[in-house]
Every structure is written in structure tokens, then in C-alpha cells.
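Reopening closed ticket. The problem is back. First fold of the pair:
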Amino acid sequence: MSHADDGTPGRRAVRASTDGCTAPLDALSRAAAKGRHLPMLHNLLRGCSLFKEDVQADAAQFAAKALDRLDGNEASAHPLLFALSELTHVPGPEDYLIAAKAYEDLQRESPQARLTAMEVGVRCHLYAALNGVHASSPGISQEDAASYATAAVAWLLAANGQTMLPERWSREGAAGFLPSALGPDGPGEQMLVKMLTNREALLRQSRGQEADPPRGRRAPSMIRPFMQEEDEPEDGEPPTEADAEADAPTAVVFTEVGSAQTPAGQRVLLEFKDLLNLPLPLEPVPDLADLRKALLYEFPHAAVVCDAILQDFVGRSHVALRPVLLVGPPGCGKTTFAMRLAELLDLPMEVYGCGGVSDSAFAGTARQWNTGNPALPTGMIRSHRHASPVVILDAVEKAGTSRTNGSLPDALLAMLEKRTARCWRDPHLEAPVNMEHVVWLATANDASELPTALRDRFRLIPVPVPSLNHLEGLSNGMMRDLVVTRGWRREWALPVDGAELRALAAMWKGGSLRTLRRMVEVVLAARDLADAVH
């Protein structure tokens, strides 16, 4: 007979107690997974699954129960009321910490006994941790942390045969189990001390209590342990390339994939698992004087447009732009300007022709369909691994407005609003996506043809019609572009000379840039013919 099953009453009592504890927990996990019961906090900490096996579903159910117990008549309870209400919709990871703080503030100012038993603060910290957020203050007190850690280490040692369970699981036996498992200088005590010391260090670091004193820029923490002591940058040294990468602005776009346990969810998870909770780069703002100069070289008639757009970049660390609608007659260079702006900002770009679009496929299709796909911006972020792609909606006023299969204007509304864009729910992921940093540029010949709700979400910027005064600058820019398109070197794009300029001026009096480009193509062809003759 094995030592673990020697038939003694004490051993049988321990096994019965353990089995009796596990069976209800398993049953509760199954019930929680099916959405019948909301597990208590102590059951979650012992391994019970979340309600419907989903953090958001568990939080919504828990917040609804807490709201039923909350006395909202007191003004001091209003912050918690609003915070819990947020958890019942589509909360962001930080919303859980906001709710925890609101609860802790309320309990200090005006304790509500009906909420105390629900342990709202600790549970919200648990939700935040499951979403990858490290709180700046502990969700579990140091005393409770020590108690949990002690019990965990003791049972770990017992499971590995390094300590003995009591013969009888009585009050005295249970009380003596932990001290005996964590005797002086034993492995259990060493493990416990290390765990709690690390916890204290992490909490102090998150509060900034161990921040370095003011000094020159340091190497990133992930690099520093692998550097020789003499390689550490001295005070006052210029930033290194690694420093610049560490300080580059980033944003987390994807935090979860909904219903990931289903076969369809597994396929989507495979597409996005490398991007979950991964900070994706944002583009730093370039030198605005250089950017303006480059744009005006090619679009000398669009100085007002350049200044209106570039003012959004002033004072920012990274490229951020309110949705812009460029309005002007056909051929004034709206789409070309938008594409060139994206290129000069060094951002991934896609032009989406809206003419004739009569459905909402732009916003993605559900994974249940064979043709299921994420929304176009979601796909761009995934493909380019960049949080701030440029989406150019070309001829947006020509999109169909019928709602039979959904409509593009309706699909765009939530994406263009900053508040809703932060947690826009992609039907393919079945989870929120942070589209706050997507750059939206749209073009239209006539803004009055747009639905009012969509037009109001854009900043309308008129694009002037180019005139004869802009002929030389426009012609030289087009000449350079045509030379590059042919695979020639840029320096071969010689500016138009006097005779060529006079010939162009005789045929083009202003208006469409498409017409002018065809004329510049004729000038370039004439140059080729002259070179061939000579």
C-alpha cells in the first residue's frame, strides 16, 4: 500500500476532503462556462473558470450584480456607479482599474456594507490583470498576499512529497500544517521569501519609488543586463539608436479574440495571436518645414490645404490627424495629394474607391461566412504591423446609401468618432480593436451629397482649382513623376524650358491636372524624339 493511501483515518479524511472540494469546483466551472452561475472570487482564485469563460462576460455580469447592491442616491457613489456601468458594455483594460479605484474611494469615504462581501476592488484588479494590465497599486493586500503565497508553497511541497500532511485534518492539524511545511531555512521558506520580495519590488517599481535619479539617457532595461559595465552610456552622452527605439511612440491595438475556443475562433486567433497586447509603432512627426516644402513643390496651388493639415501635427510626438475630407472639382489633385501626404509621412496606405459600393464589407464580415474577413483598417494594421495606417476614401460621396446589405456610410460612423474608434468591435475578431490612430483622408467632388452624419465627422478642406500661375511648378513636379515612373533617375527630369512652358500655357489655362499631365507626357515624348534624332 502506498504511503498516500495507507488506509489510516487521517489519510482517508484528507482524500475525502480534497475530493469533496474538487468536485463542486468542477461543477461550478462547468456551470460558469455555460453561463448559469457567476463564480465567487475565492472560487476564481482556486481555479474555477470565468462566467462563460470570458473576462468581459464575467465582468459585465458581476458589475450588474454590484449595481443592484449599490446605493446610487449618494453623490459619493456616483463615480462607482458610472465605472460599473462602463463594465457592462465594452470596457477597455483600464476601465477595470478605474472601477477598482472608485470602489476603494467610496469604501473609505462612505462604506457600503452590501458591496463589501462582493470584494469589488480585488475582483476588478483581477479583471485588469487578465487583460494584461499591471496595476499601480496592489489588488491584494500584502497581508493577504503573504497568506495566499504561504498556502500555495505549502501545498506545492506536499504535492511533491517534501512535507507531510497531518494525520487528521482537524483544526489543530490544519493550523500546524503551514508552519511545519515552512520551517526555518527550508526550501519552502526560501521560496516564500523570494516570492514576496519580488512582489514588493515590482509594486515599488510600478509606483516609481525606485526610479533612477535625473541623469543622462540610459540604455533600455532589456539591453542593460547584457552590457559590459564599461559599455553603459555615461551621463550626458547623446541618445543611441536603441534609446530612440525605446522612446518611440507605440499603441496596443489588439487585446483579445472573441470565442477563441471555437474552430472558427481558433483560425482567427492564429492570424492575430502574435499581435495581442503587442505595442505597435506610431510614426513620429517629421520636420514640418521640410514636409510643407515637399508638398508645395508638387502642389503649389494647395498651400492652404497644406497649412490646414499640418497644423494638426504641431506639438505632437507622433502623427495624429482628425478625419479630413478634401473637397474640390474633378482633376484638382485631391487623391494624388492624399497619396503623396501618406508617402511623405512614411505610413502604410490604401486607396479605397467608394464609387458604386453598396454594402458594408469595408467594415469586415463575420467569421461564420466562408468569405469572412476583418475590416479593411484591421487588415492593414495586421499586415503592416503598424498602429497608424492611412485609409484614403476616394469619391466617398459616390458610395451607395441603400441599407439592404449594409452601407459604407453607416459602417464608417463609429470608426471616425474618436471615442468609439478606441473600442470598435470587428465582426471577424468578435472583439474590440483600437482604431484611434488610423489616419482618415477622404475626397469628394461635392460634400453636400454626403449623409449629414458622415459629413459632420470630417473636417472639410476645400482644394483650390490650379490656375495658370501654378503651371511651371505643376509641370516640373509631373515631369519628375513621369521620369521616375519610367524607371529613370530623378536628376534626368530636367525642368520645362521656356519654349515648352509657352507651348503648355497656350494649351492649358488652368483646371484639371489630368489634362495637364497628358500634355506634359507629350513634352517628354518630344524630348525623347529629339534625342533620338540627334
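Second fold of the pair, where the issue appears:
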Amino acid sequence: MTSPLPRAAGSGQAAHQALADAAQRLDSDPAAALAQAEAILRQSPGLPPAQLIAAQALRRLGQPLAALDRLTALARTQSHIPAVLWELAQTASETGATDQAIAALERLTAQQPAVAGGWFLLGAQLRRAGRDQDGWRADLSGVHAATRDRALLEAAIAMREERFDAAQALLADRDDPPALRLSGEIHWRQGDMTAALALVQRAVDTAPGFDLARDFLVRLLLQTNDLAQALIHAEHLQGSPLRNPGYALLKASVLVRLGDQQGARTIYEALLAAKAEQPQVWQNLGHALKTLGEQAEAVDAYRQAVTHQPTMGEAWWSLANLKTVTLDPADIVAMERALASLEPDAEARQEDIFHLHFSLGKALEDAGDYPAAFDHYDEGNRLRRAMVLHDADAFAAEVAAATRSFTAPFFAARKDGGCPASDPIFIVGLPRAGSTLVEQILSSHSQVEGTMELPDMMAIAGRLQSRVDEGEFADFDAMLRALAPADRTRLGEEYLDRTRIHRQSDKPHFIDKLPNNWQHAGLIHLILPNARIIDARRHPMGCCFSGWKQHFARGQSFTYDLTDIGRYYRTYVEHMAAIDTALPGRVHRVLYERMVADTPGEVARLLDHMGLPFEEECLSFWRNKRAVRTASSEQVRRPIFTDGLDQWRHFAAWLGPLETALGPTLTSWDR
């Protein structure tokens, strides 16, 4: 904090210049500043500006007790001078005189409420005195004061305009909490997550009551899948004096990611009990109820959402996406009316619009109007495809590079290394290929715990790829060959450490059902050689069409174009065939059509491959009450049925691009 130096009343120009010279030397040569201040005091005993400079010099010279004595005396007559109060507060803090520091800062912030630094120092002192809630309020006042900081405002404008260098220049050499948080956001927007996390964490450490910084920190931790830390900070926000309902929603989102659907449900229900007119909360409650298997209650929650907001496309899609629910003619009329009302604001409401197209496609398909259903599916996919990044050529080249690396000689030369744990069971493949069914069957076994689609293997693979992208290695193959046995063991152990938070039992095995992990089957074997890998596969036309008409919340950018999804399926089959050649028998393949035709036989073969004894509960998988988050959550809560196998044939006339993209895979997919 800076404040004009108090000028001696009646002092001459020479005295004033001497004071200014002493003040200027405080940081570079505090001993000289002290000597000069003492010389002035000998000529003008008790002169307040000289007393202040002397105290400031003493503190810088490591003599805070001597400084405190002078400042205490000075403050008796000069407490109207902010610089005196600021120095007294800092000195009292250094000497452990917390109550004195608090008193000085309370007086200072009353005089200068728009200066954020005083509030943040007051917050720290209040917490030191055990007055945590008062400290929290002081931090919040500091954040409010910082909204008037011109440099922060200009930096925020530059950031929004993506003038990142200019924004950072405005924040240079600042380490106050608002500047740290803003700098963290700038780094995040530039894609530097490591720096962003470090800066925002510093802001929270410095001002624990800076709610907006902690809120942002939780969101960053969610993006990096550090769920344990995200939960700690989300729970901390529940104690905020502001009582912001948004913090309860944030905690619920963390609980959902952790698989605690019941905990999230409790939060949503409490929020709705306080205020029912919250369509987003109704929708979130519907998601939790669906995952918990409470289908009737989920339907009611989604209908409450669209009642409060008829144009809420995602809530309509959530209803349509309940595979065992059929939308009626009145629903179709309501959705068509919602679409028409959104047309004037189409550019801003694209998410609602494409969700409504997917929903109408499902409703009209159920009604048997296949041409109209296809039109809506096609429009929904067209809109969504324009909003996602997917380069089919680049993806195919990336997988081809992995295919060339993961060969039989490569693995033969790397028999040592890798974490020997046999805990993980990876279920891989494409979405809508029956992986949730396989998961439900296996998780009904007494030795297997079902979790969810875990992003941790993808994160490890992404970090390895980044070493190539940053130039540490010439290519992916060189990076793989550089991994020593100890490196591979450490990576396997890291995977187990990262996923441990999702394990709620002491069962020896757990399932990771992220379909996209097929891309990393070779890496899985390299770092977890005893983990099981199951490839859940379905007829390419049925699988790809089902994926194309399914809107996925995240992670499946290839599904919104028939050619893209056909190419993706073909790339997947070719890569898994290469893995079979390199590691014969390593991957167990489950064909959905065979599982439907001979469930007992396929289940027995599956368990035998897992090395697990047969258990009858695996054949009664639909009675398993575990939470299921995928699009098939309702389907796996009833016995196996066959009515979904050939739905694509109703649309065969429009699926030429898909057939062309699949090429020879159409006849070789089941090998």
C-alpha cells in the first residue's frame, strides 16, 4: 500500500527534501535511511514523517520490535494517516501482535475501503486470531475493492479480446490475489493449465476467502481430473458467508464426477425445495436419478425442467435419451413449437436447437416416421458437427503411428517393467456397442467393482504425446522406445493412484469402461501387463448408426458425420486386429450379437477369460442397483432384448456414406 508521505508542518524546502531522500533509500539502503531520519529528528524532535521513516527502516533492518514501539507512539497522534496505520499493521503482524495489527487495519480499511491490500492483510490477521468467518468477510471486501482497480479492469478487457501479452504486461510484478487469479485465467485461456493451476492456487492460499478464485480452482481441478482436491475446495465453499447456491451446484458436479450420485441428488433436492423454478437444477436432478435407476422420478424431473423452460433442448433430449421412454404426439408438438420459437435467435441458441433436433428424431423414429426422423437426426448432427473439432485424417494418422509401434518384436523386447497389478479391467470399443452391458454383467460378480468411464488412461497417454509435440522426441515411436522398465512401472502405478478415488469397495478388480481406450490397448499392456482388456464390438452399421443418432455430452467428436464415424470404426477394427497379431489372446472380444443370442455361453467365456469363477448373478445383471451413467443405463436394467439390433435398416436408404466409409470392414468386423 502506498500513501503520500505526511509533510512536516512549517518545515522548509531543505527539510522536506531530506525526508524525501530518506524515504527513497528505504528499500535500497535502510541503514542510511534510518541514519538520515534520526538526523532529521535531532533537528525536529518528534517530527511524524521522520518517525515513520525511522520505523520503516527499523523493520527492514530486522528490528520489528523497535519499529513497533515507535509506530505505537506515532499512531496515538497520527492514526488519520493511512501510511502510519499500514506500517503499524505490518510491523505488528511480524512481531505477533495480532490484536494490534487488526485494530490498525480495521481503522485503515474504514478510511480507505477501496484499497484491496488492506482488506487482504486484515483477513490474514483475523484468521490468525481464530476469527475465520470475519477473515473470510475481509477477503470478500478486498475482492470487491479490487473491482475498482483500473489495471485489473484493463487486463480483464485485454484478456477477453485475446490480447494476452498486453493483459500480462498490466499484471507484471503483482502478486495480490485478484491479479494472481486473473493471471491464472489468462494462462488457462492460452492452454497452460500447469501455470493456471499454480497461480490460482496461490490466490486462494493468500486469500482463502476469495470465493471466485476458489470456484475457478475447483473447475480447473475438474478439468485435470484431480477430484479429491476439487472436492476439498468445493466443500470449503459451502462455508462462505455469501451462501451462494452456485457453490452447492459446484459441489454436486464434483460428486457426480466421483460417482456419488446420491450425494448430488440430495443437494439438488434441497435447492429445489428452497426454489422450485430452476429448470437447470431439475435437469441435473434428472441425470442423477437416471443414473441411480430411478427412472420414473427421472422422467418427472426432466418434465419439470421443460415445464419451467419449454425451449430447454438438453432436457428434451434427456427425456428422449431414456431409451425405454417414448415421447408422445403432444411432446412432438411441444418440441416443434419450441424449435419455431428459437428461430429468431438461432445463432445464440444452437445448443437448444440441435438438442431438439436429436429429440425429435428419436420421437419420430419411435412413431415410425423414418424419413422425418432422419431429417431431424441429420440436421442435429450437421449443427453439432460445426461446433466440434475432429480431423479424421489426423486421427487416422495418429492411430497408424501407434499401430506401427506396437508390434510383436516391440513387446517381446519389453517383457520387463510395468506395474504387475491385475486390478483393472478395461472395456474398450465404440460407444453403443454393448460395453455397458458387459460392464453390468461383470460388475454383478462378487470380485468386480464397476466404476465409470475413467479419463485417466487418456490423460497419461496425452501427457506422453505432449512430450512428442513439445519436441522432446522425434515421434511417438521414439518416445515409447525411450520408456525404461522403471518408467513403465511408474506409469502403471500412476494409473492405479489416479483411479483409486473411484473405488468404493475392497473387491480385487475394478472396471474402466471408457470406450476410447481402444486407442491405448498397446500402452495398457506396456504399463499394466496383467490388466484385462475386453473389446466390446457390434455390427458396424448398427453400431455407427446408433452412435450417429446419439448426442454425446462430451468426448465423442467423431460421431456427428456418417463418413467420420464410418472411418473411425474402420480405424478401430484395423488397429485392434494389429494388437491381436502383436499380442495373441491378450484382448477378449465380446460381440454384442453373440451375447444376445447366447448370453449364458458368452458370459461363461467372458468370466473364464477373466479368470473368475462363474456366478449366477452375472446372468441376472439387470437386478444390479449400481449407478450407471451411460446412454444405455435403462437398457441394462432389464433382461437382454433383441429389438435394437437392426433398427438401422429402417434408415438404410440414407446410409450410403456410412457404408462407403466402412469399406471392407463391413465383412471383416467380427474376426
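Update: turned out to be a display glitch only; the data is intact. Confidence is low (pLDDT under 50) at residues 1-11, 629-638. Strands lie at 424-429, 448-452, 509-512, 532-537, 587-591. Please close again.
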